[in-house]
């Protein structure tokens, strides 16, 4: 209890938890895996959650201070979640920092490549980037990520319409992006 007196108070804890749960639920929607080509694997789920968070962070970059603070706390929660998952998969304590560095590098690399395509509203460029990341071992030209690229472009447009009150209360939901 005494240690809490000196640490950073997280007044956004409930908001962050609610928003992170909504984002995680959005990334786990079954049709993403059954209809849009997301592999139902540990890495596929990491990729989809990363893509969902990237859309969220792109929306919150223009938010006020409260929205940006919540976004930073969500990225912290995401990497805590990744750390926990790595440990659950049996990676030893000594190897965890190296794995975390790799996952952080992967996340920020995807942020850059998806951002370029999303900025240009270029579905083909986005689909190519998604294919490289979601299916790195596959050269199959029949495997298309066009559906997921369309989903992400719709989701980004939907997020652009979300008001600051929704951002600041942690209630962004990507449920309508599939429509």
From TrEMBL:
Cross-referenced InterPro entries: Ubiq_cyt_c_chap, Ubiqinol_cyt_c_chaperone_CPB3, Ubq_cyt-c_CBP3-rel
Coiled coil spans: none
Signal sequence, renumbered to the chain: none
Annotated Ubiquinol-cytochrome c chaperone domain residues: 35-171
Family named by the database record: Belongs to the UPF0174 family. Belongs to the CBP3 family.
Protein name as catalogued: Cytochrome b pre-mRNA-processing protein 3
Record organism: Rhizobium giardinii
Source taxonomy: Bacteria, Pseudomonadati, Pseudomonadota, Alphaproteobacteria, Hyphomicrobiales
């Amino acid at each position: 209890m005494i240690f809490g007196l000196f640490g950073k108070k997280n007044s956004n804890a409930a908001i962050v938890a609610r928003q992170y749960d909504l984002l995680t639920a959005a990334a786990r929607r079954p049709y993403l895996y059954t209809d849009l080509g997301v592999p139902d694997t540990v890495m596929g789920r990491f990729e989809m959650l990363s893509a969902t968070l990237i859309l969220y962070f792109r929306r919150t970059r223009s938010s006020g201070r409260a929205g940006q603070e919540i976004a930073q706390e969500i990225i912290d929660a995401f990497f805590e979640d990744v750390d926990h998952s790595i440990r659950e998969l049996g990676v030893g304590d000594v190897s965890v920092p190296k794995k975390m560095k790799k996952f952080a590098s992967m996340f920020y690399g995807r942020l850059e490549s998806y951002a370029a395509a999303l900025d240009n509203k270029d579905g083909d460029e986005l689909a190519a980037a998604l294919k490289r990341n979601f299916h790195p071992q596959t050269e199959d030209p029949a495997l298309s990520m066009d559906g997921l690229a369309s989903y992400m472009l719709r989701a980004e447009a939907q997020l652009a319409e979300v008001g600051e009150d929704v951002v600041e209360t942690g209630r962004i939901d990507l449920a309508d992006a599939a429509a």
